[in-house]
Specification:
Blueprint lengths: L2 H17 L6 E5 L3 H13 L6 E5 L12 E3 L6 E9 L3 H12 L3 E10 L4 H7 L4 E6 L13
Parallel strand pairs: 1-2, 1-4, 4-5, 5-6
Antiparallel strand pairs: 2-3
Helix pairs in contact: 1-2
């Protein structure tokens, strides 16, 4: 969450989204890990239009107020890219995807900063969602946890 990190992730995340050919209206994912990624991509898009706004998906709907599960800039029928800080099992991304689809959004892709190479990619892609990642553990010279790929 450093200023430098947010600037870098925003720029690289937006580049990856555009390279994948995705044209989202909104970016976001399951709080808390996705939040800084989504916000940094949204900010980066201001200087490289078209602008993409951000949202966050709560783990549970708020018990007071509007009782929303999705907060921020999201509209029914919007095209969205789900973002993640780290993909491990793919569970958080799939949970966000379900909430967004239930709310009427169209998920056009998933962007992760790091793929831990522990099966999450296969699960997300197996569910029919394209995935773009900025780096993998192998790219970083780190071996996946034992018992995985």
């Amino acid at each position: 969450m450093s200023a430098e990190g947010l600037e870098l992730i925003g720029k690289l995340g937006l580049e990856a989204i555009r390279k994948a050919g995705w044209e989202p209206d909104f970016v976001g994912g399951l709080t808390l890990g996705a939040d800084p990624v989504a916000y940094s991509v949204a900010l980066a898009s201001r200087s490289c239009p078209p602008a993409v706004d951000a949202f966050t998906v709560r783990k549970d709907p708020k018990s007071h107020g509007m009782g929303r599960k999705i907060e921020g800039c999201f509209e029914e029928k919007g095209k969205v890219v789900v973002v993640e800080d780290v993909i491990t099992t793919g569970g958080s991304a799939l949970r966000a995807i379900r909430a967004l689809e239930e709310a009427g959004g169209t998920v056009i892709g998933v962007l992760a900063v790091v793929d831990r190479e522990e099966g999450g990619r296969e699960i997300i892609e197996g569910a029919g969602h394209p995935l773009a990642v900025l780096v993998t553990l192998a790219d970083l010279g780190v071996a996946p946890a034992s018992g995985t790929q």
